Amino acid sequence: MEENVYISDLYCIYLSDISAAVISDLHLGFEEEMNLNGLFLPKLQRNHVETMVEKIIERYDPAKIIINGDFKQEFSKNLPQEWEDVIHFIDRFSERTELVFVRGNHDNYLQAILSKRNIVELDYYEDARYYIYHGDRDLSFRKFTILGHEHPSVVLRDKVGGVYKVPAYVYSEEFHLAITPAMSFFSSGTDVTQSLLSDEHFTPVLKSLKNKNFRIFGITDDFGVVDFGSLQDLQTSNRYR
């Protein structure tokens, strides 16, 4: 991708020059919100997320993990499961790496929970080289910018009509911009050939980009990270229709 910037099959971008792993869209507490709306799901999210973070720490031993928004699920309040899951996550990992929380659109009341562990939520993370924010607001882009929010995926279709979604990274060399896939167990992702080439973008800052020459990298079970090529080629290729 770029010097010291590595995309991973662990749903993170690893920045080796600052020893930081960037993840997004964990959506802890998703099951309880769904339960309140009549859809009863097994509690799989926390274990999935924490297992993935364990693997990130084992592989990269990062000095910090930057959670780039939507750490929790419910917009309007903090659900009991969110309190439990957030505190559990912090207590499990905070002594092994610095946890940096960047606010996402689902994190309206996250600060109330973080304050119990004396953590301050950020609107964005910025240093000499990197600018990291969730993507739900148009904070523009500068330096090397990393967004979440989009939940990008590649939709594969077979000859008999089967559909398979592959979580994906989106990268623009021209704009020095990358978008991470959602780490959430329950997120099937948004088809990049529809969302990124549409006039109505899920991520506001993308509206200002005239050149949509994105490169797409999917995460597969068998082959790890796979380069699917340019977004335009992906849209027009018969293999992915």
Dominant shape: globular
Helix content range of the residues, please? 10-25%
What's the CATH topology name?
Purple Acid Phosphatase, chain A, domain 2
Number of domains: 1
Q: What is the CATH C level class, in words?
A: Alpha Beta
> Which structural category fits the helices and strands?
alpha/beta
Tell me what the CATH architecture is: 4-Layer Sandwich
Low-confidence stretches: none
Head-to-tail CA distance between termini: 26 Å
The biggest sheet, with number of strands, parallel, antiparallel or mixed sense and barrel status, is: 9 strands, mixed
Quantity of strands, as a count: 14
The average pLDDT value, as a whole number, equals 92
Proportion of β residues?
25-35%
Helix count, per DSSP? 6
Helices and strands, in order, run as EEEHHEHEHEEEEEEEHEEH
| Rg value | 17 Å
What do you see in this structure?
The chain is an alpha/beta fold. The chain contains 6 helices and 14 strands. It has a single domain, classed as Purple Acid Phosphatase, chain A, domain 2 (4-Layer Sandwich). Strands 6, 7, 8, 9, 10, 11, 12, 13 and 14 form a 9-stranded mixed beta sheet that branches. It is globular.
How are the elements arranged and paired?
Blueprint: E1 5-7, E2 13-15, E3 20-23, H1 30-36, H2 45-60, E4 64-68, H3 80-93, E5 98-102, H4 110-114, E6 125-126, E7 130-132, E8 144-147, E9 152-157, E10 163-172, E11 177-179, E12 190-191, H5 192-195, E13 215-220, E14 224-230, H6 231-236
Parallel strand pairs: 3-4, 4-5, 7-8, 8-11, 9-12
Antiparallel strand pairs: 1-2, 2-3, 6-7, 9-10, 10-11, 10-13, 13-14
